[in-house]
Amino acid sequence: MGALQSLPDEPEYRDLSEKTGFSFEQIGILHKRFKQLSHNEDTLRRDDLNTIPDLSCNPIRTQIIEAFFDKRNFHQNGEGTVQEISFEEFLVVMSHFRPPALDMTEEQREIIRREKLRFLFNMHDTDNDGTITLEEYRHVVEELLSRSGALGKETAKGIADAAMLEVASISMGHMEPDEFYEGITFEHFLKILKDIEIETRMNIRFLNMDTTNLCKKINSQQDHYLQVNGEQKIA
Amino acid sequence: MPAFSCAFPGCRRDLLVIVLVVFVGIGLPIEASAPAYQSHGTEGSHLTNITNTKKAFPVLAVNYEHVRKPFEIALWILLALLMKLGFHLIPRLSAVVPESCLLIVVGLLVGGLIKVIGEEPPVLDSQLFFLCLLPPIILDAGYFLPIRPFTENVGTILVFAVIGTLWNAFFMGGLLYALCQIESVGLSGVDLLACLLFGSIVSAVDPVAVLAVFEEIHINELVHILVFGESLLNDAVTVVLYNLFEEFSKVGTVTVLDVFLGVVCFFVVSLGGVLVGAIYGFLAAFTSRFTSHTRVIEPLFVFLYSYMAYLSSEMFHLSGIMALIACGVVMRPYVEANISHKSYTTIKYFLKMWSSVSETLIFIFLGVSTVAGPHAWNWTFVITTVILCLVSRVLGVIGLTFIINKFRIVKLTKKDQFIVAYGGLRGAIAFSLGYLLSNSHQMRNLFLTAIITVIFFTVFVQGMTIRPLVELLAVKKKKESKPSINEEIHTEFLDHLLTGVEGVCGHYGHYHWKEKLNRFNKTYVKRWLIAGENFKEPELIAFYRKMELKQAIMMVESGQLPSVLPSTISMQNIQPRAIPRVSKKREEEIRRILRANLQNNKQKMRSRSYSRHTLFDADEEDNVSEVRLRKTKMEMERRVSVMERRMSHYLTVPANRESPRPGVRRVRFESDNQVFSADSFPTVHFEQPSPPSTPDAVSLEEEEEEEVPKRPSLKADIEGPRGNASDNHQGELDYQRLARCLSDPGPNKDKEDDDPFMSC
Question: Least enclosed by CB within 10 Å: which of B232, B250, B339, B663?
Answer without folding.
Answer: B250
